[in-house]
């Protein structure tokens, strides 16, 4: 039997099957979520390397810094997994249990299996995070009885003094470098060796911070000595700062950490023992004699005429 014109017209105007309201709502929620994630990513304007660092700074130059980086990445991924699960459950409940009428849904007083799950799982997550935090913290705070090099850091308003107990001068005291308002002190340390820092303050609380170490430690007065130990893997010049608000010229309380080879470090100490100044000793080992990462604060208060 051949279909007539009327049958053909009916067939062409027959209503097409449409998605259920539930599916349409789920698609809208998914589209909004995807669009929001894409918008946030584009607004961040960061590279893939920065994005997957989750805000952790790059450039760590010690094994301790790498350990902290791994801890940060692991905990952030765990947090994202929990977040995705929670967000997914929220969106699913919004779509699945949205209001469909005036009839009151079944009231559930309790659900023992679910309550056990959301009580045990968070405890397990916290236990794992606590374990890795304790391991990482113990590794970062670990010190040796006999480090390869020792530096005594003395902080004062508003500068630094670095003493080297391993090398004594002609007066029997450790050789040292002291900063002034016109001189940025340069701290010289060896690479690929265990360097222990012993810290003291002469007045108020300061904080010893080299950004590339991804670590800082407060310096306390009153005979309270702090110490920590690192192994620097890369030679170079790194700016150091005070990270504790300590007074008027806190922002100018800078220094420079100069990481050199073990041979150059030993020669530097020998030059200091001979009475050479720090700039002269640095020049003798082929280093820039003065700080290159920061400069002294201009204390000129005289009036100037704009050109």
From TrEMBL:
Enzyme Commission identifier(s): 7.1.1.9
Keywords: Copper, Electron transport, Membrane, Metal-binding, Respiratory chain, Translocase, Transmembrane, Transmembrane helix, Transport
Entry annotated with the keyword Transmembrane helix: yes
Pfam families membership: COX2
Compositional bias segments (type: Low complexity): 8-20
Localization of this protein: Membrane
Residues spanning the membrane: 72-95, 116-134
Major localization class: membrane
Membrane topology of this protein: Multi-pass membrane protein
Origin: domain of life: Bacteria
Domain spans labelled Cytochrome oxidase subunit II copper A binding: 146-271
InterPro entries in the record: CcO_II, CcO_II-like_C, Copper_CuA, Cupredoxin, Cyt_c_oxidase_su2, Cyt_c_oxidase_su2_TM_sf
GO BP annotations, alphabetical order: ATP synthesis coupled electron transport
GO cellular component, one term: membrane
Enzyme class: translocase
Reaction catalysis annotation: 4 Fe(II)-[cytochrome c] + O2 + 8 H(+)(in) = 4 Fe(III)-[cytochrome c] + 2 H2O + 4 H(+)(out)
UniProt-annotated stretches for the region Disordered: 1-25
Entry's Gene Ontology molecular function annotations: copper ion binding; cytochrome-c oxidase activity; oxidoreductase activity
PANTHER family in UniProt: CYTOCHROME C OXIDASE SUBUNIT 2, CYTOCHROME C OXIDASE, SUBUNIT II
Function of the protein: Subunits I and II form the functional core of the enzyme complex. Electrons originating in cytochrome c are transferred via heme a and Cu(A) to the binuclear center formed by heme a3 and Cu(B).
Family: Belongs to the cytochrome c oxidase subunit 2 family.
Name of the protein described by the UniProt record: cytochrome-c oxidase
Gene behind the chain: coxB
């Amino acid at each position: 039997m051949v279909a007539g014109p009327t049958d053909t017209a009916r067939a062409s105007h027959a209503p097409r099957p449409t998605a259920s309201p539930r599916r349409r709502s789920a698609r809208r929620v998914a589209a909004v979520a995807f669009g929001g994630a894409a918008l946030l990513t584009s607004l961040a304007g960061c590279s893939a390397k920065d994005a997957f660092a989750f805000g952790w700074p790059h450039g760590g130059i010690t094994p301790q810094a790498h350990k902290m980086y791994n801890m940060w990445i692991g905990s952030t991924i765990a947090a994202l997994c929990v977040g995705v699960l929670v967000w997914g459950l929220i969106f699913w409940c919004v779509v699945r249990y949205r209001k469909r009428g005036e009839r009151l849904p079944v009231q559930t007083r309790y659900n023992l299996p679910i309550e056990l799950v959301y009580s045990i799982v968070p405890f397990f997550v916290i236990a794992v995070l606590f374990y890795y935090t304790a391991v990482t913290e113990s590794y970062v705070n670990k010190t040796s009885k006999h480090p390869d090099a020792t530096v005594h850091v003395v902080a004062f308003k508003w500068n630094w003094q670095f003493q080297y107990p391993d090398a004594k001068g002609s007066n029997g005291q450790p050789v040292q470098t002291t900063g002034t308002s016109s001189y940025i002190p340069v701290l010289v340390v060896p690479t690929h060796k265990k360097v222990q820092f012993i810290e003291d303050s002469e007045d108020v609380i300061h904080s010893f911070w080299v950004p590339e170490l991804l670590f800082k430690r407060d310096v306390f007065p009153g005979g309270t000595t702090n110490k920590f130990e690192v192994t620097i893997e890369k030679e170079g010049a790194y700016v150091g700062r005070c990270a504790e608000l300590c007074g008027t010229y806190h922002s100018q309380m800078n220094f420079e950490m100069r990481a050199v080879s073990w041979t150059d470090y030993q020669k530097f100490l020998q030059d200091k023992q001979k009475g050479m100044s720090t700039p002269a000793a640095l020049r003798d080992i082929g280093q820039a004699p003065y700080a290159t990462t920061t400069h002294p604060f201009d204390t000129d208060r005289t009036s100037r005429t704009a050109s």
